[in-house]
Write a structure and sequence with these properties.
The complex is a heterodimer of chains A (152) and B (106). Chain A has two helices and nine strands, in the order ααβββββββββ. Chain A is α+β, with helices and mostly antiparallel strands. In chain A, the strands form two sheets. In chain A, strands 1, 3, 5, 6, 8 and 9 form a six-stranded mixed sheet that branches. Chain A has a three-stranded antiparallel sheet with strand order 2-4-7, with no helix packed on it. The longest helix of chain A has 16 residues, at 7-22. Chain B has 106 residues and is mainly beta. Classes of the chains: A alpha+beta (152), B mainly beta (106).
């Protein structure tokens, strides 16, 4: 199917290109530093993809305020519940975003907040269950206007 | 002083899962930004958020500079008994704010 690009799409693509060009700054996290940060939290335990849902818009116009929610499939009983939820980014200046402690009294394993994203990147959410297992989900986000870069 | 807003249902049935929403005014200065002259603007963020329900901790969050300005956090808890939910934010430069909300459980 061929279709001509609208003016809006062209401008948006140009904006995205520009945003990625402007990003020439040291002290940026990399996928490796994100993995290190995750290991700091998880230790040697195995992380299995699944059970975690990461809600994040696929295209973000303004990286300064990005709605993010993480939920985990769990009955949230005394015997089987989510103990913690952690969120990491690949290319923010630091990989850590949020660390949450919860328990059976939460009733439902879900947390929502608003984050900053400095770049088009992957975001990873991991959850620790009461049996000691770790689960994860990741999402890719395209950011047109990056956070953290403007001068004051 | 920082303004905090807390949303908790005023009434709930016993055992019902209620949603708690907390919003507080704060710059969440990342410590990664620079001024025109190249000097780094020092970090000034809220680092910790704790919610207690009649004195028992039910939720805790550790915040990093990647949390947007005016941090918003929503989570849930089970309405067990009538009482008070106290929300406590602490951070850099001695930042400390507590806000509470009453709930009637029937």
């Amino acid at each position: 199917m061929s279709r001509r690009l609208s003016r809006r799409e062209v401008l948006r693509a140009a904006g995205a290109g520009l945003a990625s060009l402007v990003v020439v700054r040291p002290a940026r996290a990399t996928p490796d530093t994100m993995q290190e940060a995750i290991r700091q939290v998880v230790g040697p335990a195995r992380i299995t993809p699944g059970r975690v849902t990461l809600e994040l818009p696929p295209l973000v116009e303004n990286g300064n305020v990005v709605p993010l929610a993480v939920s985990v499939e769990s009955p949230m009983t005394e015997a089987d519940h989510v103990r913690g939820i952690h969120v990491f980014t690949e290319r923010n200046p630091r990989p850590e975003v949020l660390g949450v402690r919860l328990g059976p009294r939460a009733g439902r394993a879900r947390v929502a907040t608003r984050v900053r994203l400095a770049n088009t990147q992957s975001v990873v959410a991991i959850a620790e269950l009461s049996d000691g297992s770790w689960w994860s989900a990741s999402a890719d986000v395209v950011v047109t206007l990056a956070a953290c870069l403007e001068e004051a | 002083m920082a303004r905090a807003m807390v949303s908790v249902p005023a009434r709930a049935r016993r055992g019902e899962i209620i949603e708690v929403k907390a919003l507080i005014s704060h710059v969440m200065e990342t410590g990664h930004r620079r001024r025109q002259d190249g000097s780094v603007i020092p970090r000034d963020i809220i680092r910790r958020f704790v919610c207690t329900y009649n004195g028992t901790e039910v939720f805790r969050a550790e915040l990093h500079p990647a949390i947007a300005a005016n941090p918003f956090i929503a989570f849930s808890t089970i309405a067990l008994e009538s009482g008070t939910l106290a929300l406590h934010w602490t951070g850099d430069n001695g930042f400390s704010v507590t806000e509470s909300a009453a709930i009637v459980v029937e």
